[in-house]
Every structure is written in C-alpha cells, then in structure tokens.
C-alpha cells in the first residue's frame, strides 16, 4: 500500500480570521472548506508559497466583504422601506453603535495628523504588549505537550542532614535541592514512592555533542538517555517504530536507539526503512527502533538521539540522572508532598553516603522556572510601556475633547442624552484602539521574530513562541480594554459639559481648567513610569558594559579554538591518548601562520569546567569556607598562547612531563586569598588525591559571565589522568587565517576515527557568553528608550496645548508689556513642576522595584546611583526641552494676532 | 425584483444542476461572463438569495481535502424559479419590438 501524501493545511491564523468574519453554521464551514479545497489544489499544482499568497488574498477580500455586509446591511437605507420590523432595544443600540462607528471614522478622517498620532502610539503600545504576550503565553502559561501534563513532576532531592527548609511542592526556595541522583538512588526511590506516583522514570542528558557514525557520514549530535518507562509516563509514542522496552534497559542487551524527527528527515529522508538500520555510537552498533514525533523536546529541544539504559553508567558515584514522575490520580499535590515528607533514602553522592529526602515541583515549573522571573519583568516593563502609551492617547483625547466641547454642548442641547454622548465617545476611543490594535498586531509579528533572532538561548519551549490565534484573541481583548480605558475619562468629562456656559459666544472653555489638571496628573504619572523603565534599562546597560569591559585576563584576539573528539574505546588511558596529541601539536605549530599552540581540557568561555576540592598547607579553613577550584590541565605554551600574564614563579615547560615533582600553577585571586601576602610559590597544595607544589602564579582568567574571583588551578597535561577529548588554542600571526579545513584534515590524517569540531575564533565563543545579558539589555533597553520618547512626546503635546490655550492671555500680557523671558520662564515653570513631581515619584518607584533586577546585574548594585542620576537627568533634560519649544512659541506670540484669534 | 447578478447566479445554479456548489458556480459565472468575479460577491449573493427563500442549501459529506468540512450544495426553490420567470417576462416586455433597432 502506498501512503497518501499529507493534505496541505492553509495558514491557521488566516483561517481563524476569516472564520470569525463569517456567519456561523453551514455557510462558515462550507466557505472554509471551499477555500481549503482550492488551497490544496493550488499547493499541489503550483506551489505552497503561491497557494498561501492566494489564501491570504481571499481571506482579506472575503473577511472585509462579510464584515462590510454586516455593517452595511444594518444601515442600508433600502431596509427602511421594507416593512418595519419591531425595533427592539438591542437593535437600536446596535444601530446607534454602527452609527457612532461611521461617525467616528468620518471625524478621524478629517483630522489625519491627530489620528495618526493616536493610532500610531496605540499600535506601538499594543504591538509590544502582544509580542511579549506571544512569548509569555506559550512559555509560561500553556500546558506542556504531554498527556495530563498537570500530573507530571520533576523530583528534587535534599540531604536530610541539613536543616529542613520549606518542604512543600512549588516552593520558591528549592535551590538547595539537587535534581540529580545516581541510578541506584533512583531505583530506591522507585520502590519508596509507589503510593505517591503512578511511576517515576529517569533520564540523563548531556550538553555536549558526541560523534555518531551514520554509515556514510559522521555527525556530532546531542543525545539523551532514558529509562524505558519514560515515554509511556509522558504519554508520548514514536511516530514510527516502537518505544523502548524494559529489555532494552537491561545491562547486556543489544543496543537500540530512537531518532528525533529532524534526524530522521535530514539523514534518512523520512523513509520508514530507517527502522532496523544501524548507527554507531561510542563504538557500539545501535539498531534504530523508532522515531519521535516532530516537536518532541524532552528533556531538551536539542536532543537528537535517545538511548535506553543499556550501557549506561549505574555507578553509585555518577549523579547523572534526573527523575520525572506522574502523580497518582487519587493523590493531590499537597497529599503527595505530605507523604514524601520525612521519607529518606541513603545514597552515595560524590563517594560519600548521604541520606536524602525528596520533594518535587511540577514538570512545567522545572522547565520554565528559571526564566519565569525574567519574563515577568518583561511583562511588567511592557505593561508600564502600555500605560505610558495609553496616557498619551488619553491626553490627546482630552485635548481634542476640549476643542470639541461646543459640538458636545450643541448635541446635548439638541436632546442627546448623557448616555448617548458617553457612548459616542467610548465608541470613538474603541475604534481608535481597534485601529491601533490592527497595526499593532502586524507589528507584534515583526517584534516576536526580532525577539527570536536575538537568540535568547535561555528561554525554553521556543518552538512554541509565535503570534497565533491566541495572540489575536489577546489583541482583540486588549484593544477593547484599552479602548474603554482611554475613553472613560474624556467621555465622562464631556458628559458633564455645562450647557448654558458652553453656548455663550467666545466663552473660554468651561472645563478647560479641569481638563488641564487631569492632563497634568497624567503627565506626572507618565514621567514616573518612564523613569522606572529607564532606570531598569540603565542598570542592565551598565551591567552589560562592565561585562564587556571585564578584564578577561587573557587576549582572545587572533586565537583560533577547536575541540577534538577521540573514540573512547581506543583511547582509554593517557598512554594511548598522549601519542595522538604528541603528533598533533607539533604539526600545528609547524604551520607558518601559527605563533603558538596549546591544548587545554576546557576552553575558557564554555560553560564546561571541572572543579575540585583542595587544601592549602598551613591554611585553616573556616566553617563556611568551601575550598573548590576550577581545575584545568594544559600543555606547555597555553599561557603564552592566550597571553595570560605570569606574575610570579614559572609556568609549565618540558620539565613537567609527569615524571618529576607534581606541580601546579594557580591564579592571583587564589594566591591572595589563601596565602594572604606570603608568596605561594614553593608551598604545597592538596588537590584530589595528592600534594602538588605551586610553581607559579598567573593573572585571573574571567569568562562565563565570570561573576567571582574564583580560585583557578592549572596542572600540566602530561602525566594527568586526562580526558581524551581536548580543546586546542592556536595563536595566529595575522587575523583572518582560515584554519578549519586544515585542522579537520590534520586530525583525520592522524586517526580517521577522530574528529575536530567547533573550530572558530575564540572571540566568537566569548561572544556567546555575553549573549544572555545582551538579550536582556537590548529588550529592556528598547522599552526604556521607547518609553522615554513616548513620554517626551506626551510632555510636548500637553505643554504646547497649554500654550495654545493661553494664547489670548499671553497676548494680553505681551501687550501690557511683559517681556519675553518672563513669559518663557512662566511656561517653563509649569513644565518644571510637572517634571519634578513625575521624576520624584518615578525615582521612589524605581528605588522600590529595581531589586527584582539584582540577580541579573553583574558587579553592580541595583540601587546604583549612576544609573539613577543619569536616567533622572536624561529624562529631565528631555522633558524640559519638550517644554521649551512651546514656551518659545508663547514668547513669540504677537499680541494683535492673539487677540484677533478670538 | 431580482438584480442582474442575482439572476445570473440562479441561472448558473440551474445550468450546473445538482452538483452546484460555490466554486463551481463561480467558475460557471466567470466563464459565462468572460471576466473574473470576486468570490465574496458570489458568497454574499448566495446568502441573500437563500434568505429570500429563492435558494435552498444542503450540506454534503465532510471531505478530508476540505479539512473535514462539507460542501454547500445549492438548489433553486420553486419561489426562485417563479422569480426568474417574472424577471424574464418583465425584461421581455422591454425587448419587444426593438429587434430592428438592436440588430442593425
């Protein structure tokens, strides 16, 4: 049987849009069906792109046609000739709303400048809010794509000999709990928890890639291991083939593997023949037994291959495993937490037997927990931004309302009830915000894409981020709320208009002063909000700059880095490994462009490092003194290649071949902290199993965000029980030398089964280390700057309106001899008072809330005075400039023209 | 009184027979009139004619190619036929006696 090709599906969002415009029932169903039918035909006979373009055109044409039909039919004059239908109250409200909408559209068209300002501001505000919603909703709110995701939990373990902290599930204070256990420990918990969980399953997952032999190609892939019960526990099955069986977990079983959808498509052409094929991983042939569905991302979206437990380390010293569980249907979360409380299991951790208690958090929280605070900060920032935008529009509307006061008074005089006036104005504001939302929705799409191109690696579930039907619904609701929100004040102001006074010819606006006070209040609020955003983005910016400027302690310029991977089985010990590198290094060094080259166990600027406990001869550690150092094994030439400064003693050379006295080189911070002014050189240090002598002190090397002055220890590579996979650093004598292909060829020529990868400038790798802070800074910075601009525009609008209102008064004063400077000063004083009030409140507000940013700041206090002062000064200057321009205009008022204007 | 486009739609449905559903009707109209017609105006006219009782629609079976949605088959009702007749006869009274002028 040949399988039929999948049926093309038109863009869902577009279908949802047109569906919403169509009348329910057969009409909607059949029209959508007709469109889809032709879409399918066009996709197959032309191309998907042209079909999509066609579909979007149809959606726009049909949607607007049907909407128009709805509005026009109700208004059609022809209809009045048909026998009168009984006008219900509902009918007349709908008719009057339709009338108001048309009236609004007419008046808006008459004032294109004003309309563009208001709609543009709303589009920015609503667009930004929708964009952030499109990130927050799928990441934080939407349930995970597993069966009954609410029942899934991630287990955490805590040494029972430590004081019990908050034990309950979902507690925020879980940082003392470890998520990782050994396999034997997992097995113990499996027996201990069957009254709490339907089942628990273990998995492990590595951040680094490993070489996989696919037959014709060798590819590095991300892999994960899971127990056979994991997929059933999640409620996910492979698209083709089978899940792991418990036999697959048994230690001696033949190897099997499950592929990700992507690997299946890319390397096996999506053919079902893949089942039964063999791939080779760590020298083991593995049979492909299944392919996971598209989008399956457990435990991480990067994973490409899953293995069962066969061949995994079950050693009681490797804490590689994380544990997920499914709560029993008859147990609530609280009951489950209560049952687990006090239960313990003993397991060796780092070689020491420790007794552990267990608790859990929801799997959802486990996955998104880390980014939750950051996303909530973004949400708060965008809300502040939305409010600033709304305030601007309210001010614009109040200004316009004052101008239209006569119109309202006349309408009231002609018998329009207050309710009717309020309705008209609320309709106006809603139409405005709907127009803004329509533009904003398009903007949100662009903003969301921009957000993803900033590459926020830390954000999980990225594949689900996008502007979808949910976002559309959100935009519509937001537009309604904003529309009514910004309309309330102008509407009720207008409804209170005073008839008698309003109609008097030449009267000054009766409610002008009231409006002015409201606008002033709004400006103060707006400035305050803008300052909070500015301070926040200023803090992140300063932190980011200091991160960039950090004295890294080495010179990454003109250094090419690469990583090697050797097949473990053939290189089990140093004796086998050493000849490989002994051949590699001299050949690299012999290249004419190469100044020096060296090997290191872990590159600076990668998240991987090895740390180890140590002891210092003659140093008595305090109770909280945790003596751990980052340990790297390096070949001679490492310090020269990276230009790490030698401060005292010597670095490694040919003497350190593993035969003589074991030595180490330590960093400056470590020497200062543990030798306290004495020279460290020559004294001894206990590292892991044995004592080594300190040969030299080098400057600190900072990277990885490099938050602390952590102790760093270097050991000679020769003679260590080293990793077979190393990183290489090569200093080249001129920039831009392309080495990648040569390195690859060289490595393969020494051993065809070895591979070199991740070849590139060290500087680029360092760039990755600052990508997270850069992402935060850019996003919050964009809000800060946009908020600044919007509030300056707001201040400018209010001030110039105030000046325009006072043209007559100012003219009279000029006529009576007031000098220009005095008038300017007077107008500016008004602005100044508002600015001071706004900034004062903003500063207090910012002081209160910036603490939430503290954990994102590098070497910077959240109450950093510089950020506060610069933000306050910047906003004050901008605001005063916004006042100055209209005040100049006030001073230039020609008394004659001003008086004639009335 | 039927509009010209409404008449054409009704006639197209009668021409097609029992398979008449919107895309076919659109095709028939376009080939008959020799120009492209907006899909929306056909749909809206169909809805209007149905509301006037001149057309009657029935749902077909759901089809996978249509995303599991049915076709809407259209049939001219007896009222529709009567309306067409009236339209034709009133037009005919205007045509009467003008052959000489129009066929010059």
- Average pLDDT of chain A, rounded to a whole number, is 81
How many angstroms does the end-to-end distance of chain B come to?
31 Å
Number of strands of chain A: 25
Average predicted local confidence, pLDDT of chain B? 89
Count up the helices of chain A. Answer: 28
Low-confidence stretches of chain B: none
* Number of H- or I-type helical stretches of chain B: 5
Uncertain residue segments of chain A: 75-85, 162-176
Question: Any idea what the radius of gyration of chain B is?
Answer: 16 Å
Would you tell me the structural class of the helices and strands of chain B?
mainly alpha
Largest interface: A-B, 22 and 21 residues
The CA-CA distance between the termini of chain A, in Å, is: 88 Å
The shape of chain A, in one word, is globular
Choose one word for the global shape of chain B: elongated
Main sheet characteristics of chain A: 14 strands, mixed
Strand content of chain B: 5-15%
Describe the structure concisely for a colleague.
Chain A is an alpha+beta fold.
Describe this entry's structure for a reader.
The complex is a heterodimer of chains A (902) and B (104). With 902 residues, chain A is of the alpha+beta class. Chain A is built from 28 helices and 25 strands. In chain A, α13 (372-403) packs antiparallel against α18. With 104 residues, chain B is mostly helical. Helices cover 58% and strands 10% of the residues of chain B. Chain B contains five helices and two strands. Chain B is elongated and about 55 Å long. The chains are: A alpha+beta (902), B mainly alpha (104). At the A-B interface, α2 and α3 of A face α3 of B.
